[in-house]
Write a structure and sequence with these properties.
Largest sheet: 8 strands, parallel
Mean pLDDT: 81
CATH class of the largest domain: Alpha Beta
Radius of gyration: 24 Å
Structural class: alpha/beta
Low-confidence stretches: 1-37, 111-116, 176-180, 309-314
Distance between the termini: 76 Å
Length: about 450
């Protein structure tokens, strides 16, 4: 009797196994999005909220959210989820969206412009960010001591770090900012990358940051072949590559290194349409960080911003007094005036880039002079609105920055329970983002 062929060929076993796994996952997720018969230990049920996808602007009204151990287990119409024993929070029609991300902060810069522009402890800086509504941030300062402190703090926004600042020799020093104990790697040729790169990877950094702002407005301060090699190494490690630029010509040149994001603001007048098309073609995000320039410009006294935002109450009054003292800010104002920067020039760029197809992300540069943690978040939202961005465009910047930092841009079953609760719809007024009702990171509400 001839041998019988197997019921299933061995070559098809991997395919069948994958199909079975996919079917099991589908059934599992379907169960989570429907009625639940039992509540997992430590579960939280948030009832009756309007869930907003900031990327598309789509709203799912009157939803319930269920999470446990930091992961979303259920999302469905109000009353559809049953989780006995879960801690229930009544949303009363509040608005829920993914916890916003700030793609550029400096947790530890300190100095005289103004004094104490950043608190002396990483925990304080992080708590100021959380109280404003930021749930995820990227620290670009590369201060090893502060990184260690920040990683040890709980009950604060999630922090990721660019553990080295790559510059040209003598580049990127902030006048008046002390102390400077960050890890700065100065690059003149590709060989200069070897030693700092080994230290960078060992430290487990989560982004690579370089500045090409040093000599002149047109020439890159880091030679382009070196910048290209730096980008190649970043992408080989799966790390986002962010380049700081302040001039159009440098921005266009830097795109050859395939950065994931360019950090502004742009301080000169150039062909915004050309740059916007180039950014779109390269798939490169633009992070305006408008407040880093505009908070210090004449005609926009910082005291006026302070009075508009409830976050001002979270900053030491003595620090605010120092920030708003014209003599303390005089050097910073003179610098931008000397560069010919005006609010009209800086504000025109983001809208024109967006009109040309570029995607904008959200970054404040908080920690730089006159850009306070917490207040920086709120003033940046106002500046983006002043720049002519629609409420939906402002919301999309938050989604794009989450994606840049490796986080999902929308709330979804199986994803992290990182969400911001608002009293009102930010689709009608982005100012709603400045009055958070609650912020949850990994399912825990931040104080």
């Amino acid at each position: 009797m001839p041998p019988q062929p197997p019921l299933v060929r061995r070559s098809r076993l991997p395919l069948l196994a994958a199909l079975a796994a996919a079917l099991g996952l589908t059934l599992f997720l379907a169960r989570l999005s429907g009625p639940l018969t039992g509540g997992p230990a430590g579960a939280t049920l948030l009832a009756d909220v309007n869930v907003l996808d900031p990327d598309s602007g789509l709203v799912r009204p009157h939803q319930d959210l269920l999470w446990a151990q930091g992961r979303l287990l259920g999302l469905g119409p109000h009353g559809s989820l049953s989780a006995p024993g879960a801690h229930v929070l009544q949303g009363h029609g509040a608005w829920a969206l993914p916890a916003p991300a700030d793609a550029a902060v400096f947790l530890s810069l300190e100095g005289r412009l103004p004094a104490d522009s950043v608190p002396a402890a990483a925990e304080t800086s992080l708590r100021l960010q959380g109280r404003a509504g930021v749930g995820l941030l990227l620290d670009l300062n590369a201060d090893r001591e502060f990184m260690g402190q920040a990683r040890a703090v709980t009950g604060v926004p999630l922090a990721r770090f660019a553990g080295a600042l790559f510059t040209a020799p003598g580049g990127w020093r902030l006048s008046g900012q002390t102390p400077w104990n960050s890890h700065v790697a100065e690059l003149a040729e590709t060989a200069d990358l070897e030693a700092p790169w080994a230290r960078l990877v060992r430290f487990g950094d989560q982004a690579v940051f370089a500045s090409v702002e040093h000599e002149g407005r047109d020439d890159l301060s880091i030679p382009l072949p070196v910048l290209v090699e730096l980008g190649r190494r970043a992408h080989a490690q799966g790390l986002p590559f962010i380049v700081q630029v302040q001039h159009h010509a440098k921005a266009l040149a830097a795109l050859a290194a395939r950065p994931d994001a360019l950090l502004g603001p742009l301080l000169d007048e150039g062909d915004d349409a050309q740059l916007g098309r180039a950014l779109a073609q390269a798939g490169c995000l633009y992070l305006p960080a408008l407040g880093t320039a505009l908070n210090a410009l004449p005609g926009e006294p910082l005291a006026a911003w302070m009075g508009r935002f409830p976050a001002a109450a979270w900053v030491d009054p003595a620090v605010l007094a120092g920030a708003t003292d014209p003599l303390r800010a005089e050097g910073w104002v003179r610098r931008y005036t000397r560069l010919g920067v005006t609010p009209a020039v800086v504000l025109a760029v983001p809208g024109r880039l967006a009109d040309a197809g570029a995607q904008l992300g959200f970054a404040t540069g908080s920690g730089l002079p006159l850009v306070f943690h917490g207040l920086g978040w709120q003033s940046e939202l106002a500046w983006l609105a002043r720049a002519g961005l629609t409420p939906l465009q402002v919301l999309r910047t938050l989604a794009h920055s989450r994606r840049l930092l490796g986080a999902a841009p929308a709330l979804m079953v199986g994803g992290p329970a990182d969400l911001l609760l608002l009293k009102h719809s930010p689709l009608d007024d982005p100012g709603a983002l400045t009055g958070p009702r609650g912020l949850f990171v990994h399912g825990e509400e931040l104080p």
